[in-house]
Design a protein that fits this description.
A hairpin with a 2-residue loop joins strand 20 and strand 21. The chain is 6% helix and 39% strand. By secondary structure, the protein is mostly beta strands. Strands 25-26-27-28-1-31-30-29 form an eight-stranded mixed β-sheet, with no helix packed on it. The chain is globular and about 60 Å long.
Length: 470
């Protein structure tokens, strides 16, 4: 693959940790503006080189970083503008709500043991009290006076742990016109309750929401499973995919009259993976519920399964330990052999993967996938038509942390492909630079990179948003 070098042009600095970067045209405006959503609950937009506040929901969001030493994966996680936003003023938010925190689903950390069946078949019990927090997905509208106001709640989701809630978790599908929600498997590690493979669990799925159907439910119940939802809400939902660990959004690439869908799955200990698919057959939630009632299997021809928790990308999920007789080597044991075997033929294979350890000189050791975006612009010809992705932090970039930027392309024969690192010429000096998000404009001709100087959301105003330029 061609080696590519790009520049980074600062657009906004000294902001809080950016979780969403995307553009929209405000009602009554004439230009596309870049919107920046921060994890703590602010939404800004850039107008005439100045940063303006669009919405501030910090009081609605739970206190972040209190129990994790400043690190947190909750907060404002999703922002999406309706395809007709310019005309109807509708937009959508996904955030972790204040005032509803619990102790978590397990009293201690989870470690699967292939020799102990109890650890392989855990169940999430006492869900109404044993949970970590509640995520809410809401519809908002810009009123005629220009002020945003909440219009309705679409979903209230009880989450077992603090992590794996998704990021950049709301996007509209240009194919169906529906809102796409990526939920993450609920957290901890190794998906203790195997929520991602359970058809009725909302966790670990990619879900389409028909927002044009008005459900007229003022305060939806707080749920964890599809069959706990009122019928009116069930009828608005279809499931695109399951077997998801944690996804930093979904990206759509126009290909003649179809769209290629791209989604990354954050890895456990071994590998980060980017998936692609064109054809899929979403399953209505009502069909999943009906199948469970009669104890039958719904028709899953064309249904997408990323394979987690049995598979981590292209490899069976592994428990990794240091070798006692050789500290330079690792011992890898399959964590869920039976699940890996059962899913071996039905799972979707990744388009490309990159490892947490990679000795090749032109690669990097990754930490966590943080963004996947299609680039269709012409200003960086070597990247035109490619899939660009970001990793939080290169393993080899100590003591000053640096994130990683890379790309891959779809092969005409549909086979898996390698990736290439994108070199950048920006000097971050002595400051750490975690690459926390990747965004694009409406036509996918521009790319935006969110960088933060710390892993802690409690370390404020250490963020910079860049445009990736030739």
């Amino acid at each position: 693959m061609i080696k590519v070098k790009v520049g980074l042009r600062p657009i906004a600095s000294k902001i809080n940790l950016p979780t969403v970067l995307k553009t929209a045209i405000l009602p009554g405006d004439s230009k596309e503006r870049l919107f920046i959503a921060t994890q703590v609950g602010e939404i800004f937009y850039i107008r005439d080189t100045s940063i303006r506040t669009f919405l501030d929901i910090r009081p609605r969001i739970l206190k972040l970083g209190a129990s994790g030493g400043g690190y947190d994966e909750r907060g404002l996680l999703g922002l999406a503008f309706h395809p007709e936003f310019y005309y109807n003023g509708l937009f959508y938010l996904h955030y972790s709500a204040a005032g509803a925190q619990g102790p978590g689903a397990l009293s201690e950390s989870f470690n699967p043991d292939p020799c102990d069946p109890k650890t392989l078949n855990l169940r999430w019990m006492n869900r109404e009290t044993q949970y970590d927090h509640i995520d809410t997905i809401e519809e908002w509208i810009i009123q005629s006076n220009g002020g945003p106001q909440k219009r309705r709640t679409l979903l209230n989701l009880r989450r077992p742990f603090s992590n794996h809630n998704g990021v950049n978790s709301l996007n509209f599908s240009p194919e169906t016109g529906r809102l796409v929600l990526t939920t993450g498997d609920g957290g901890s590690g190794y998906d203790p309750f195997n929520l991602s493979q359970d058809d009725l669990e909302i966790a670990g799925k990619i879900i389409e929401i028909d927002v044009d159907k008005n459900t007229y439910i003022i305060d939806p119940p707080i749920v964890t499973r599809f069959n706990e939802l009122p019928a009116a809400i069930q009828e608005t939902l279809t499931v695109m995919a399951k077997g998801v660990r944690n996804i930093p959004g979904i990206s759509f690439q126009r290909f003649y009259i179809q769209y290629i869908k791209y989604a990354g799955n954050v890895g456990q200990d071994l590998v980060e993976s980017i998936y692609s698919f064109v054809h899929y057959k979403p399953i209505p939630v009502t069909q999943l519920i009906q199948a469970s009632l009669v104890n039958s299997e719904p028709d899953k021809e064309g249904f997408i399964n990323f394979g987690w928790r049995g598979w981590e990308g292209d490899f069976p999920a592994s428990i990794i330990r240091d070798c006692t007789n050789n500290q330079n080597l690792d011992e890898k044991t399959m964590a869920f052999y039976n699940e890996a075997a059962a899913l071996s033929a039905s799972r979707l294979q990744p388009l490309t993967s990159y490892f947490h350890k990679d000795p090749r000189p032109d690669k990097f050791g990754g930490t966590a996938l943080t963004g996947v975006q299609v680039y269709m612009g012409k200003r960086i010809p070597a990247l035109t038509g490619s899939v660009v992705f970001t990793d939080l932090a290169r393993k080899e970039s100590q003591p000053q942390v640096r994130g990683a930027l890379a790309y891959t392309i779809i092969r005409p024969n549909g086979k898996q492909n390698d990736f290439s690192v994108i070199q950048t010429d920006y000097d971050f000096g002595s400051q750490s630079a975690y690459y926390v998000n990747l965004g694009t404009n409406l036509k996918q001709t521009r790319l935006y990179l969110g960088v933060y100087g710390s892993m802690k959301v409690t370390d404020l105003h250490q963020g910079t948003v860049f445009e990736i330029v030739p």
